[in-house]
Specification:
Length: 264
Amino acid sequence: MKWNVALLQMDVAFGQPGKNVETVQRMVRQLSESGEKTDVILLPELWDTGYDLDRLSEIADQNGERATALFKEMASQLNAHVIGGSVADQREGCSFNTTYVVDRQGTVAGTYSKAHLFRLMQEEKHFAAGDSPGLYLLENQIVASVICYDIRFPEWVRLHALEGARVLFVSAQWPHPRLNHWRQLLISRAIENQMYVVACNCVGEGGGSTFCGHSMVVNPWGEILAEGMQQEEIIRAEIDLSLVDEVRKRIPVTVDRRPDLYRL
Ligand SMILES: O=C(O)CCC(=O)C(=O)O
């Protein structure tokens, strides 16, 4: 199974969902006009509101309805699966930082709410944490998604790999000065779990942060297949899922684990 992935590394306008929807639509038109086949589209974290958390009651997406309507349009326009970055969605009286996944048939294939909230940006004051893994089936392949700070928790990503995930999609608003951490963590998660890591960051400024771009596609051997710069752009790569089996066979890390020693 081979997928052409496209990462929409957008400049997220702080607190302006309408403007951000226009940016996504413009980038999708660009993909469509390129004539190149796209199988999976990935967006950044909080791509519609940015980190404008003080205005969530005004600008958050109720039950993810605004986002899923847009993703269904995108899925049908490009005949592609949409891993919808994340949006601030309000449900059951709480706000969550949530990924909605819409498959190419236009069905919501799954949702994931960020499990590890980032205190440095006071996320825990505004969001409730999710407590379920982000595992989905796309064309019978198990894939996973996590959000930004989650990649600092190798045991969380490992859990997804042990459940059979072959690709990890990461959506982020990762700021300077920690570009070095972003790159090293993504490459490490790919090598240790022998999976593809497809990670979409944003660029631009918001809430006092400058986001560092460098969205990346890393293969299960830790090689970078594509990497963005610090500008608004679409990053594309082809991922061949058979390489996951090959690498896992060559060095059978999962078989050689000693959970009896470290209980993880
Ligand atoms: O872990 C980091 O350094 C960045 C995390 C972050 O910005 C986030 O989770 O929103």
